[in-house]
Structure formats: C-alpha cells, structure tokens
Write a structure and sequence with these properties.
Layout lengths: L10 H10 L6 E4 L2 E4 L9 H19 L6 E13 L4 E11 L1 H9 L3 E2 L4 E5 L6 H13 L4 E6 L4 E5 L6 E3 L4 E3 L8 E3 L9
Parallel strand pairs: 3-5, 6-7
Antiparallel strand pairs: 1-2, 3-4, 4-6, 7-8, 8-9, 10-11
Length: 196
C-alpha cells in the first residue's frame, strides 16, 4: 500500500507553529519541515547580548558612512525567509541585507524576504559543532556570501565563504569583510565587551 507524503509546511504553517511554541523556542522552516533552530532559550547571557549590540552598532556606523549602499543591518533573531521553494525561514542573530526591498522591510514588513549578504551567528554555550556547521551550510545553500561565527569566549571571529576562503580574526587583528562590506574594518577587540 502506498503512503502519502506529508504536505510541506508553508510560511503560514510556520507562523502558526511559532505562535503556539513554548516561550523561547527557536523555530525554522527548512525544506518544508518546521524544526528547532539552534539553542532553545528564553534569554541570552550578558556577554552574548552585549557582543550582539556592539557588532550591530559598528555595522550600522559602517552602513551610515556608505550612503551609496542601500541596505539594512538587523539583529535579535530577525525572521528571514531565505528561500521560497521549498520555503526556508530562520531567525538570525545579526545580518546585513542589501537592497531597497530589505531596507523597506525593516519599516513595513513582518520578515525579510531573501537571503542576507552577511549572516552573523554569536555562539552560545548550548551550540554544538553540528548545529553551527548545519547553519553555515543552510546559509550557503541560500546564497549568503559571508557567515561570521563570533565566539565571545575566545574573543574571535571566523568568516566563512562559499569559496572556502575562510579567515580567522583574533583580538590581535583588524577585521575586514571585503568585497561584500566595502571599506569595512574594525579592531576585533572592539566587537566584544571591555574586560574590567
């Protein structure tokens, strides 16, 4: 007897599941299936949230200094439909979206439609190696050009690219992100809370 395959979940299904999920559950829609996405937590620790705020501020300053670039910096589990067929919806710690449609979505939309140029994930204690590698692969499959994995414990950033030209930046380095972020550079130390 033949079995009928379940119908792939849609954006509407995802939004219903998200509304009904226990508080703090991170969901994603990947290849028509609603799954948990990374760490399941209701709040972020102080180091994670401060690092996120510092990176967002530095990226905003860069974007405002480049009026010729139309885009938006977003953070805090920003909902993003990275692909339509099959639908793939994730939350992003931080991202740079380029294009007028994304800048407009920041003021009028309920989600970003399309992959960001740069996706930034800040590691938490509950992230596993497999989780992180899986997220990087999903991002690349959807067209993200750079994935930053930020480690607040080791105070470093690794930039992954689909080409495999990955770079590790420690607190001894100045982080650059050419060509996707033209003219962007910042001391890595500036991305993390100051040690007292």
């Amino acid at each position: 007897m033949a079995t009928t395959a379940a119908k792939p979940a849609t954006m509407d299904d995802f939004l219903r599941a998200e509304a009904n999920a226990p508080e703090g559950t991170r969901l994603a829609l990947i290849d028509g299936e609603i799954v948990e996405w990374g760490a399941n937590m209701t709040t972020r620790n102080a180091r994670h949230s401060t690092t996120l705020a510092k990176i967002a501020c530095i990226l905003w300053n860069w974007l405002e200094q480049h009026a010729e670039i139309v885009g938006v910096i977003t953070g805090g589990e920003a909902r993003c439909r990275m692909r339509h067929t099959p639908e793939l919806i994730v939350g992003l710690d931080l991202a740079f979206f380029q294009g007028r449609e994304h800048a407009e979505a920041a003021t009028t939309g309920s989600f970003f439609d399309g992959a960001p140029v740069v996706a930034i994930e800040i590691l938490s204690g509950s992230d596993t190696h497999d989780d992180v590698v899986g997220r990087i692969r999903v991002f690349f499959d959807c067209g993200v050009q750079q994935v930053w994995i930020v480690d607040p414990d080791l105070r470093n950033v690794t930039i992954y690219r689909p080409s495999g030209d990955d770079e590790l930046f420690t607190t001894k380095h100045v982080l650059t992100a050419e060509p996707e972020l033209p003219g962007f550079k910042t001391p890595v130390e500036a991305l993390f809370p100051k040690k007292i």
